[in-house]
Design brief:
By secondary structure, the protein is of the alpha/beta class. The protein has 9 helices and 9 strands. It has helices at residues 16-23, 33-49, 70-73, 87-97, 107-117, 126-133, 165-168, 172-183, 217-226, and strands spanning 55-62, 77-84, 134-139, 156-162, 186-198, 202-205, 208-211, 229-238, 250-258. Helix 3 (70-73) links the parallel strand 1 and strand 2 (77-84). The longest helix has 17 residues, at 33-49. The mean pLDDT is 94.
Length: 260
Amino acid sequence: MDSCNCKIYHEDGFDARQSLKDYFSDKPEMSFREDSIIFPMENLVKTFTEGHIQGNILIDLSASSTIHHLYAACEFFKHIIVLKANERCIMELKRWVDERTGAFEWDHCAKCHADIEGKSDQFEDKGEKVRRALRHVVKCDFEKENIVEPIDLPPADCIIIGSLLEFLSKNQDAFKNYLRKVTKLLKPGGHLIILGILDATYVIIGKDKFHVLNYDEDFARKALVEEGFVIDTCKVKKRTAVSDLTDYKGVLFITAHKEK
């Protein structure tokens, strides 16, 4: 498939359910477990349990309709606000939040998270804790200067960006511009957590090939510094998944804080 024919995440149809099946399910043939599930959850548990990042409001901007990265966050923030740039992702997430028939099953990730915490007997409570903390699922528009207009959101203590900007951005300037817009939602001194995929050009969802911005660790670091962030941690894991569904080379985890 020619990369010039790639679809764009927020402009073209994106099958949220298929993306969950291919990249986050417990199917035996799902080869991304270490990269898409284990790596982010291990780092989020470590980050939040250190006690430096907590507060009242966390805003999540993640691709697809994932919730597994919120298992750790819901223990340290009273309110979680999820922003989505894609209507089908909103519908898929609300299906899980409302516990409707046919919602994607996340128990395998809840068990994994509980094992990482060393509380393997408490996994059944994880989903309910996220649901209680998750107050709003809001459509956002990255083409607006205020991406949540006309809604007025309180400034966040922490923002998680989960492999979203690389899907939205057609070039590096767009990535920096979108990052700038996102960080306007953060209070002074607030924290930013970025989960990303490195050196990628495409992701296949079902029969469709989607564009992914190709960037590396150095670019991510420089983009944050230019926006006035101090990087606290940066970890890169080389790809372990064997699959033709996507061509990323590694996964990224960054925590940073905005100087007051």
